[in-house]
Amino acid sequence: MAVLPPMRGAGTPTRDEGSEAFDRGRSVLGVDPGNDAIDLVQLDDQTMELNMGPQHPSTHGVLRLVLELDGEVVRECRPDIGFLHTGFEKSFESHTWQQCIPFTDRMDYLAPLFNNLGFSLAAERLLGIEVPPRAQYLRVIMCELTRVASHFLWYGTSALDLGATTPFVYAWREREKILDINELISGVRMHTSFIRVGGLLADVPDEFYALVNEVVKTFPSFIDQYELLITKNPIWMDRTRGLGVLSPDDAMAYGATGPTLRGSGIPYDLRKAQPYSSYDHFDFDIPIGSHGDVYDRYLVRMREARESIKIIGQAMASLPGGPVNTSDRKVALPPRNEINTSMESLIHHFKLVTEGFHVPHGQVYQAIESPRGELGFYIVSTGGNRPYRCKVRAPSFSNLSALPHMVRNELIADVVAVIGSIDIVLGDVDR
Amino acid sequence: MLSRELPLAVISVDEEVGELTILVHVEHLIGALTLLRDHADALYRVPVFVTAVDWPDREPAAPRFDVVYQLRSIEHNDECRLIVQVPEDAPRLPSAERVFAGMDWHERETFDLFGIEFTDHHDLHRILLPEDWVGHPLRKDYVSFGEPVAFTHNLEWALPAAERPRDMPGESR
């Protein structure tokens, strides 16, 4: 089989050997299957199947696409996913509620705190507890920092896909500062598990305030720099404008959410529409696009990052004091000094550590606005110390399902731009 | 609204932690979804997800699987959840992909992980797991982890998979 340029007329993906498309290609060519290495027969009215990925730098993870090409034009695109499927939903069912939190980190690994938050909010709604205001504000601050980090990473890698190397280096430099904050508050840079059911891992250390205030102060000018690099760059504009257009109706029909939906001009943001975790206390705008193309999604993300920094600034300015965990001793561990003096607290501590808390019977769907869109947790509880069923509604999954629609009749070189623009994380798609 | 327009479709309506759950007859599912999408009072035009919940221990008469459809209305800023029950011996129901294009992949995922068939789906095959995978992992009777070592306290693990009791020591670890 040809290693480099795939032959015209024959299916090439190695995993598809023996598949219908592969055999069809061969029979049209009249190729002996045992000896089909080189064949330059030109056929008219014949499309070519091209395998892209899973190990491809521009698919942002292990995504495989089978593209049906007519010349350089994509006639059909069939995504093949599941390479990162880990069965987290099954694992949830055999772990206590609090033990599920580290799993959630590892789904959308570029926005782990959002997954923590979604799961915690869903469990808290079933439990009927409210976390203290300080915890809610810190959750908002950390989530918005993560959103900025995620959008920066997206900016760097997407620009890199289209040949711009500088943005990548700049964006990662600033993302690093946010990862430093993660490390400061939780000890790890990515899979923090900082947000727990009932509150937070711990209160933030004193150094936290200076670092976050620095972010609030300096990041708007960094975003100015980023925009200076590519927003008006003729190459970037030529490559992205009018490409991968998703109409508002199609965006809704495919269940696209987040910047992909807002790029199509629908101002729907769960932080405004169904405020959770005190988002209604903050003043921010929902940026939307007008054409629904790759360029609009880029503009929406850059403006969203600015709005996030606005939110962080407001939250830091009015950060309330007090505890960061619920006072409900059936859910959150009692403080250390209480355990020494109170028998009741000792029992609670023992029960929470050994078997975890029990969540009342019921079902709940809690959706939050992650950097990629609507991240939802549908949880069914039968009153046990483990979720009976936990379905993760991953934004990347639905957004990616609209990809074939977006790349149909576009050029093959533009497929990477469109994949970049929907900002998928394959851990989130496959779970 | 649904019980007014399609009274035959609705079995029960339930509200829990502020969320609406409607239990619907399977033969009226597509009608109900279409109505919820198009009716001016509903306009649930965004398919949020499709999934299933396995209840193997229900009374014998009750169907084993709940298939869950979550819909969102951007116009009315509202969500609702439809549940359809399908039995274990015939786990199939009509596909909703013609009502919502976005349900295509979610139905494939439900098929993949639960083995529930969506009858007129255009391309129903596994989506997350490899094509040659055996079984449907999110069913409760699918044992989720590999081959544990059988000690004296869990000798049941030495049995072939089919002969193992349903609840076994160590399963939660």
Which descriptors would you attach to this protein?
heterodimer; A: 431 residues; Cytochrome-c3 Hydrogenase, chain B; three-stranded antiparallel beta sheet; 12% strand; B: 173 residues; alpha/beta; Beta Polymerase, domain 2; 2 domains; five-stranded mixed beta sheet; two-stranded parallel ribbon; 3 helices; 15% helix; elongated
How is this structure best described in words?
The complex is a heterodimer of chains A (431) and B (173). Chain A has 431 residues and is mostly helical. Chain A has two domains: 14-80, no CATH class; 88-327 and 356-430, Cytochrome-c3 Hydrogenase, chain B (Orthogonal Bundle). Chain A has 18 helices and ten strands. Chain A has a three-stranded antiparallel beta sheet. In chain A, strands 8-9-10 form a three-stranded antiparallel beta sheet. By secondary structure, chain B is of the alpha/beta class. Chain B folds into two domains: 2-136, 2-Layer Sandwich (Beta Polymerase, domain 2); 143-173, no CATH class. In chain B, 15% of the residues lie in helices and 25% in strands. Chain B has helices spanning 2-5, 29-38, 103-114; strands spanning 10-16, 19-24, 46-54, 65-73, 78-86, 92-93, 117-118. In chain B, β6, α3 and β7 (117-118) form a beta-alpha-beta unit. Chain B starts with a helix and ends in a 55-residue tail after the last strand. The A-B interface holds A 81-82, 85, 87, 89-91, 93-95, 125-126, 250, 252-257, 266, 268, 273-274, 362-365, 367, 374, 376, 378, 380, 386, 388-389, 391, 393, 397-398, 400-402, 405, 430-431 and B 16-17, 19, 21, 45-49, 51, 53-54, 68, 70, 74, 77, 79, 81, 100-106, 109, 113, 126-130, 137-138, 142, 144, 171-173.
